[in-house]
Amino acid sequence: MQNRHFHQRPLPESPSLLLERVRAEPLTERKQIKRCLRYLNKYHYLKGLQTVGERMFYALVDEDGGWLGVAVFMAASRRLRHRDGWIGWSDEQRRRRLPLVVNNARFLLLPHKSVPNLGSVVLKLLCNRLSGDWEARYGHPVAIVETFVDPQRFSGTVYTAAGWKELGLTQGNGRVSRDYYEKHDRPKRLFVRELRPGACRSLQADKLKPLYAPVEAGTLPRFTGSNAELCSLKESFEKEVPDYHVKRCLYPVHALLTIMAAAHLSGSPRGQKDLAKFAGSLSQSQRRAVGIRRRAGTNRYGAPDQSTFSRMMSQVDVELVEKVLIAWQDRVRGPVPGDEIIAIDGKVPAHSGGKNVVTAISSPSQHYLGCVVTAAGTNEIIAARQLCEKLDLDGKLVSLDAIHTQTETSRVIVEAGGDYAYTVKDNQPLLREYIETKVSDPAAPFLTPQPNSAHGKRAAKKENR
Fold this sequence. Notes:
- With 465 residues, this protein is an alpha+beta fold.
- The chain has 4 domains: 15-217, Aminopeptidase; 227-322; 336-423, Ribonuclease H-like superfamily/Ribonuclease H (Nucleotidyltransferase, domain 5, 2-Layer Sandwich); 426-465, no CATH class.
- Helix content is 39%, strand content 18%.
- A 7-stranded mixed beta sheet has the order 1-2-3-4-5-9-6. The chain has a 5-stranded mixed beta sheet with strand order 12-11-10-13-14. A two-stranded antiparallel ribbon has the order 7-8.
- Strand 2 and strand 3 form a beta hairpin.
- Helix 9 packs parallel to helix 12 (284-290).
- It starts with 14 loop residues before the first helix and ends with a helix.
């Protein structure tokens, strides 16, 4: 990074004072960035660079504002075997969380301004402020930084001294554009550093911490199942759900329903606009698998737009679609275990437009059993009763929260052959008092009192008597 043959000025008289007062300042103005690139073109062996995606330019300055060097950070490499193994994330996690990793693409100390230990000092300064600067500019922090060192030129000592970790050699590919790499047969030494303690643990977790979650929320989910699974879904809809189209079209109903189901399985929002984006993310082979037809005169499969999904939702038989989905679930996962509890609960999903949807699932296997949308002018209690009436509850235990502790709801469940487990709270004081004084504690394993809880102490007293 240094040119030993270039000297314009002698080294500072007090190197220690320089190390104490050096600063790293983000560059935002075009003329500052141009100056940075001029220094790189003159002194860095790789010259300047074409930055890709999100990026940050820094000037390393002394107490008088004089430039001592520059640094550039930008989007991380899409795939790095050693880095991805070190983080421990899956391919899908990497795809959705890669913006939390950045690449130190250039680091230059001006040869006539450098002093011993300046490199490690400024690298630490950069790492201390990089995440905050990134969040201020792009709305999200970063967790890990990576860089490459050419072993034929440098040893990487400055990175090691600044707390970076060497992971090994790359495979010798260089980025040409955002998503395109070319072989250059000059493997580089890969160094990485966590910008926050436990960053690797956070990136490999099932759910990101709130600090990092906005990055993943802004990334469109992708269907990671097989084309065979898509074909299986498509065949179920094609066989059971009639198509309302009069003429042959590019996007038959079974294709649209398969895309909607795939979006649900992928955790994608399911409003019409979100479905259109999800459909656009499908590969050509996936579009063929869901049943989209080829455009005339081409070998390409298009993607339905927002209005296409809107028309489908207004004309399709919702009850029939649910029946097909449950039957497909049974074929893929097998029937619901007979001894499982049926849990019924109401939520307002983000994609529902503010509508309360009451859903039934089996626990713990999480089989979907059905749902009812709370109608206008009614409430969740009425919707839960409607759902119970259409479920097979014979011999089942149904669990609902305290709002459903109602006589009429109990009658519906019992008449369908089921039993119920309710929560009783202070809004029903007489019933709660009766249960506490007249009903004995249930035996394990249905309920195991904790020894130090009030309920556990009462149970222990009864046992002693």
